[in-house]
Amino acid sequence: MDCKKAKQTVFLFTDDEMEEAALLLLRRHLDACPECARHAEYVRRLILLVRQRCCRQAAPPALRVRILARVRSVRFEE
Amino acid sequence: MTKEPSDRRQEEQFEQAAMPYLDALYNTAYRMTRNAQDAEDLVQETYLKAYRSYDRFEAGTNLKAWLFKILKNSFINEYRRRQHIPPQSDFSEIEDSFESQVSDEVTRHMPNPEQDLLEDVLDEDVQRAIDGLPVDYRMVVVLADLEGFSYKEISDILEIPVGTVMSRLYRGRRLLERTMLEYAREHGYLRQGEPAKMRSRAAAGDGDEAGPSGEGPAREFRRGGKR
């Protein structure tokens, strides 16, 4: 695998969407090429940043109650 | 009018299977609508539609993805129409294939300062950057990075080819990266106490005394963010 291909696939690698054979080739390239390894590490950190740092909104408890009440009333509406 | 026992059973089964996804659906709805009231309405509508068509759900298939597909359809129908956005936004124009997009990756230079800048990105920067993404990119990024769906699942939920998922995700993340680094650069300037204009903005925002130098406790405070 060359640097071009490595940079094209690194984002699939981070998303765990690579097939076994391609993964092996990429790993081998990253072991041998510090520049691509640095790039891969940057992409990994970037994606991790989004995954871990965007705070989640939990549903308000009242919404659960309202949804259950509406679901239970559906049969009566029909 | 009393309920048939079979109705009760279906209700219970639906509740048990579908309600565990409430927080995930709400979180996505919130990131899509960017406000609590619309998110609540959207999620409630999703559950009602899901319940009404529950007999069409194939047992054993991916219920979470099925619920998210209903959420997506409700969002597109109700909210985009309400905001007078044409159903076909002109995305196709800028939506190059994944392959052509990543080819510019090759010439991309990755200097060290950019790597270090990631350190300066705050939690609220991530959120602001996601909220600022165009809606189609935001949807893909939220499903992939906040909800952890695979490309295939996202393709099923959004009813678009896997290649389109990849290209939107790629472009969406590049936009995110650019915005987050911009924010990080601002924080960096503040820390070094460089431009006076930005400094005064920070002092007004933080309301603390450590403003001018931006070193020490103030920096620690900002870096800590909310976890």
List key phrases describing it:
heterodimer; A: 78 residues; mainly alpha; elongated; B: 227 residues; disordered C terminus
Summarize the structure.
The complex is a heterodimer of chains A (78) and B (227). Chain A has 78 residues and is an all-alpha fold.
Number of domains of chain A: 1
**pLDDT averaged residue by residue of chain A:** 89
Q: Give the termini separation of chain A.
A: 61 Å
> How would a crystallographer describe the biggest sheet of chain A?
none
Helix tally of chain A?
4
Q: What is the overall silhouette of chain B?
A: elongated
Number of strands of chain B: 0
The portion of residues assigned to helices of chain A is over 70%
User: Could you tell me the strand content of chain A as a percent range?
Assistant: under 5%
- Outline the low-pLDDT stretches of chain B: 88-94, 195-227
The helix/strand class of chain B is mainly alpha
Structural class of chain A: mainly alpha
H-E string of chain B? HHHHHHHHHHHHH
Taking all Cα atoms into account, the compactness measure Rg of chain B is 22 Å
Largest sheet of chain B: none
How confident overall, as mean pLDDT of chain B? 77
Q: How much helical structure, as a percent, in the residues of chain B?
A: over 70%
Provide an overview of this structure.
The complex is a heterodimer of chains A (78) and B (227). Chain A is an all-alpha fold. Chain A has one domain (3-73). Chain A is 79% helix and 0% strand. The radius of gyration of chain A is 22 Å and the shape is elongated. The N and C termini of chain A lie far apart (61 Å). In chain A, 27% of the residues are buried. Classes of the chains: A mainly alpha (78), B mainly alpha (227). Chains A and B meet through helix 1, helix 3 and helix 4 of A and helix 1, helix 2, helix 3, helix 6 and helix 8 of B.
